[in-house]
Amino acid sequence: MKKLCGLTCSVLLLAAFLAVAPSGVVQARGIVSGRAFDSYRLPNTTVPTHYTLRLDTDVHRGVFDYTGNVQIRINVVEATDQIVLHTLRNVITNLQLRNSAGLKVAVKNHDRDIDKEFLVINVGTTLQPNSGTYTLEIDFTNSIDRIDQAGFYKSSYLDDEGVMRFLGLTQFESVDARTSFPCYDEPGIKTTFDISIVCGIEYHARSNAPLRGIQLLSGGKKLSTFATTPRMQTYLVAWLVSDFVYEREVLTQPQLAVASWAKASSAHLLSYSVDASTRFMRAMEEYFGQRYSMSKIDNVAIKDSDYSAGAMENWGLVTYRESAIFYEPEQGEQRQVGVVTIVGHEFTHQFFGNLLAPKWWSYLWLNEGFARLYQYYVGDISHPELKLRERFITGPLQTALRADNSLTVRPMTYYTDTRQGISRLFDSIAYDKAASVLRMINYALGERTFQKGLRYYLQQNKDHGVVEESNLFDSIEQAAKEDAMLPITLSIHDIFSSWSNQPGVPVVTVRRDGDEFLFTQQRYVAEEPPAEPFTNAWWIPISFSTPSNTVYETLPAFWMPPNVTEVSYTIETAEGEVVTFNPLSTGYYRIDYEETLLQEMVQQMNKDHTAFKAPARARLLDDTLNVALSRGDNYDVILQLMNYLQKETEYVPWMIANDNLRHMQAMLRTNEQASRLLQAFVEKMATPLLEKYGTDSGLGESATVQELRTIAIELACSASQSCKTNAQSVVNSLSRSEQRYHNTVDGALLCHGLLQINVGQRKAMAEEISHALLATAGDDIFAKQYLEQSLSCIGTDKTMVQSYGKYLFGLSETDRSEALHRLLVKSKVPLEEVLQSIDSELSLRTSNSIYHNAVPKVLLEVARYVTEPAGMQLLNSLTTAHAPWIGSEIVQQLQANRRWLDRNAEPLVDALTRYFNA
């Protein structure tokens, strides 16, 4: 809800802003430069050493303007007559500079460089290094009434009496601290903060550090003052002004208060997140040999529709979507996996990202790669019952391999300095590929040595607190040399930089001559490689396993060097033994077996697949199928290999198989013959799985069983009368609102049931879902989520409830991916209608809308489904209008889609036809 004064207030703020913000590029007139700023990086002739920030808010009254005062102690690094920092949206009402004696230093004026978001303060004298500390004090006004869900902004909820209650929260990563207060807003600049916040007496303020004291003020307000923070970067500064309640647990030895906060009506959903937080925190501290830096950490639950970030690791004040950390026992283990992994991700950041900050965004993977890896690996220690380690293979590793297979993908370490460019670094390469590479090095050195290296990394760098990749390499190398886990001629710098500083993933081709195995490597791409050969090459840890030799199952038998034509390695095998390479999916590379080796493995898989461990079966499926799809051949062997799935009952292989089958369904959906044959094959493979697990969920079932049942329903329900009947009954229960909590099995059955009903029933169901969504209380986020997910399964009638564009932009990235598959593949909604709806939705929004940051991700996700000329033309036009900076990537994806079809559709049809005629 927006207050009536919102537009007027915004206009006044804009007018005030323009009054002090002349357009154009500011000239750097100081000692240092004398030229226009030619970089988006601060000149850093001055650096901050401490901030004292005070804010005065009235959010408790529904008033969204606020005033602020920031005092920044600064040191001069290089002689200059300018102080340059960041500001955006702040209306500066007063500015003064004082020297270390407290005397005013003359300031000529202050200007703004609009493009670079700089505040340029021209000083009346030359500031000299080593001349003592200066204090820059700025009074400013701003507003939380903004629609981009960034900076300091407002959220709201309805209380039990139906009254709208407002709150203010922050989301500063990556470059939005500057939109809430003037500051040096770069990740490598760390300093301390003293924060104090004025709010209504019925409300309370929280910030990074523990509360130090409260002072009552006149007018029904109070001042909350917080302890000094550790040295930290601006994007981690955070505060919350709300009337939320909390559940808390206080740990001892050492003391740590762990709390989760939410609106009062949701307080009963917080217990599990507190328990998960305490267990993960203590496991993390022990694993890394490092205590958490403060005496408290808060989790804050924000309404999903008001929090596009998903979650944010602010030091001591972590924020999440409500659906990410709320939990009730009826929801079972699947929800527990979600809570533990998201809490684990953000808590891992308290060390990797917070304690150790990246020198620049180029090294974002040093934050996100560690957080992605250890949300699973420390989570497996804190919550062994959830079996999180095996989920890494089906989650981040699989996502990385699919993201890293294009010609235009970037390397892990990648420089950019624009707002837009920095935002785009938060991708699967920074998260999933980095985690997969770190995990590979962990296994290659042995976990004990890698863990030791990470302890060195934390201890050796925490005082300075700013790192780049070479710091990590130094620490790991020290541990590896001490433990003799690396050949003497090898360097971690050489090994690791071959993965971090070049794009792509390698494919290792293996052929056999007796007991001699010969290996070559090249870069893998999901389509035919370019005419000009790739120059990419890596240090690759080659692991293998045989029934009689598992010594090198995770440890490398040898390191395959880059830029070598072929490597030979002898493996003695008994008669009939089959060798598998990268058997536990610990390496970040694909394996391409020569024909005779592959035939041996296919025969073994169909004879007795349990001769290979589940991760080895998954790796063989994924690598062999993807290599075949990139070449457009060998499909008779591929179908023989996949034929074994009729006997597969384990989680990891089926998750990997499902990912590949869904991709093939998406690509072939416009080819009627190919789609029909593929569907028949899929149903044949998955029907035994459906017969094993059925459609009824049992109490206390593991998450893996639930997910296997979900896969079976999604792939084979059409071929099972009992499944179709149960799906229809779930549709009926939806209209009767018989159930509050739903798992993925319910969602799969509901979707299939909605796809079965006729046009008239579908229209009626769309109306029922619409009414149910309107009636759903704000507290019942899971019921609402279930209803919203069902919209992707009612075809074109979904538009009776909500446009495709608005629907897709309102989803999280994971939910959006699933919704697109259901819309375009299962419901067969015309792609052009979805694209036109996205275009219409974007045309209604301003550039500072929350949609703006999501546009590239949505368009790139949709691009994976575009295979026909009409859709390609429409998407290109849409991209030009709304996100031209990703135009080349869109074109590359569309070309890759077309080539995929040209290469694979006919051979797949022929192979499937032969399979069914055999």
TrEMBL record:
- Enzyme Commission number(s) from the entry: 3.4.11.-
Subcellular localization(s) per the UniProt record: Cell membrane
InterPro entries, alphabetized: Aminopeptidase_N-like_N (IPR045357), Aminopeptidase_N-like_N_sf (IPR042097), ERAP1-like_C_dom (IPR024571), M1_APN-typ (IPR034016), Peptidase_M1 (IPR001930), Peptidase_M1_aminopeptidases (IPR050344), Peptidase_M1_dom (IPR014782), Peptidase_M4/M1_CTD_sf (IPR027268)
What keywords is this UniProt entry annotated with?
Aminopeptidase, Glycoprotein, GPI-anchor, Hydrolase, Lipoprotein, Membrane, Metal-binding, Metalloprotease, Protease, Signal, Zinc
* Any Gene Ontology biological process: proteolysis
Q: Which cellular component, as a GO term, is one annotated location?
A: cytoplasm
Instruction: Give the family from UniProt.
Output: Belongs to the peptidase M1 family.
Every copy of the Aminopeptidase N-like N-terminal domain together lies at 47-236
Pfam families, sorted: ERAP1_C, Peptidase_M1, Peptidase_M1_N
GO MF terms, alphabetically ordered:
metalloaminopeptidase activity; peptide binding; zinc ion binding
How is the cofactor bound, as the UniProt entry phrases it?
Answer: Binds 1 zinc ion per subunit.
Q: Which cofactor does it need?
A: Zn(2+)
Q: What class of enzyme is it?
A: hydrolase
Q: What is its main location?
A: membrane
Occurrences of domain ERAP1-like C-terminal (ranges): 579-754
List the protein's name: Aminopeptidase
Active site residues per record? 346 (proton acceptor)
UniProt binding sites for Zn(2+): 345, 349, 368
Q: Where is the signal peptide?
A: 1-28
**Species the sequence originates in:** Anopheles maculatus
Q: Which residues form the Peptidase M1 membrane alanine aminopeptidase domain?
A: 272-499
Tell me the membrane topology, using the record's own terms.
Lipid-anchor; GPI-anchor
